[in-house]
């Protein structure tokens, strides 16, 4: 612990990275940063960086800090900086603490994983002394829920800023597991070199301090928000934040003052070009591949030639199926095989007619669905827009349409709570056609279900581990015991990242943080990820399964349409149609492999572009064999009740459906179990036998099950969220009256 604390911010370790997070619209961020820069000019060298960031170098204390302020309202910037920062410096308002946007930011940071932090309170000197003491007591009491036993640091003088710096350098560092096992880097400077083929792609030279683990040139790197890339080489330029810098010949000293300001707002290309050493170059034979999916071979499952066992099995089945048929004299065996009995011919005709009827019904159902979808598409194509006379009325009507859609969702969620999984039996399509992919189970808990049965084509594109937990343990054991060849922690290096789009450099020029993480083996490959999440209490809107959500998983961001299922210890897990507010659920998606532990945040994008936090949790497993079962419940009503038998109606509407579902066990809402004995008439009435007498108000249920899989809607590009509108209700009464 002592070695870790001494290395952070020292000559041999990386600078102490402090992310400055504004939690209130009125918190004086610029005044605080100015006071921190004005620390003891005789011993401190400050370097102004991009977007208001700067570095503090103190050779006397052998400490160096780098302060990077997060742009107010930019949620992605705050979360990205918190992924790599050693400490977070929260700036609070002396009266209210934080507003609604600050509350949302804190919820996301706590769910992602909070590093070491400090609470600073700038301002408040204009209040009378008595009110100042009361406001401080009130603020200390209000932050206890979020930050128990946290200390508030006023930052109004240079002496108070010195105490804050001492606290930041001496406090115990909190570890985030997903970053401690991977090398990561926050860009200090960057340069884009376009390729010869296209100006849109090129090599990105990113300079920064290596943190977490040693960085190897053959491993892949993930640029947060942009994707996975390969490295071509790693350079070692001079350290721009050295505590004992070399004196360059021809450079003039600046009098007695040791305070020097260096402009670091450029790309840093001049600094990188002078005295650059090439540390290592990528070896194509050892370099990790960027392949994320398996290219499926459509002929892979085809049978080329039967084996000896299959030929013997076919011979045995022929012997078992031999029959005695009367044939004319002189008929050969080949001719006799084509002679069919009258009874068999009739039964085959009946079977063919039934198959044709089922095919016709299925084709009619499919054609009806196709026609309806074509009509809907036609309506969408021929939709016209009229310019309203009053824009405000039109906007208000749009909001009313959204309200109606939300009301419909609330009704569906309420109906699913009252009547879970119950559906109405269709009248126009036979139930045996509509539910032909479903099956009955004797017991949902104990009945077997083969995890490799009827897999979708998307499963041919993903990777699966033979034993994921064992692979993870071996990998982490290697990280702890073996020393990785590469740039050590604390080195200032330049990474040459290949085939990077120019948009990455443009976002860096706009002042957004550029964060890189090295990937562990296999972490670029696609598989099925399962997250254990719980609904965030601040959001109550209904969220259906297979709706597009935004995921922040560890160091990744992506969009996907997930499935929700129950979290149980069984081998089968029931699908949930909505994200439940009262229980932990498992979310299943197609996504790149990530080794746990890793936190996950689920956001839903509003129509106006804002991102709402709807659920938080952690990565549970990477397991394509996890079986998610969708349940359908068909309900019927007792028409006539006898001692242990009853006539049930309204579950089916024709005799053939009753015969088709006859093997499936029945149950009732009051706990009775039974089975179908026989159909009555031709309109779906059936005689059922139960283990006891039914009540007249009871409902007869039939459960059907089908395995479901997530949709392949993975998209690594997530749009930037619209900043939160800060609430005016947090303003003090005096300022409201003045306005």
Automatic annotation (TrEMBL):
Listed GO CC annotations: nucleolus; preribosome, small subunit precursor
Protein location: Nucleus, Nucleolus
Species whose genome carries this gene: Daphoenositta chrysoptera
Entry keywords, A to Z: Nucleus, Ribosome biogenesis
Main location: nucleus
One BP annotation, GO: maturation of SSU-rRNA from tricistronic rRNA transcript (SSU-rRNA, 5.8S rRNA, LSU-rRNA)
Domain Bms1-type G: start-end pairs: 14-174
Entry similarity comment: Belongs to the TRAFAC class translation factor GTPase superfamily. Bms1-like GTPase family. TSR1 subfamily.
Biased composition (Acidic residues): 341-363, 371-383
Span of the signal peptide: none
Chain's role: Required during maturation of the 40S ribosomal subunit in the nucleolus.
Name recorded for this polypeptide: Pre-rRNA-processing protein TSR1 homolog
Molecular function via GO: GTP binding; GTPase activity; U3 snoRNA binding
Spans annotated as Disordered: 248-269, 283-317, 336-397
Polar residues bias locations: 253-264
Pfam families: AARP2CN, RIBIOP_C, Tsr1_G-like
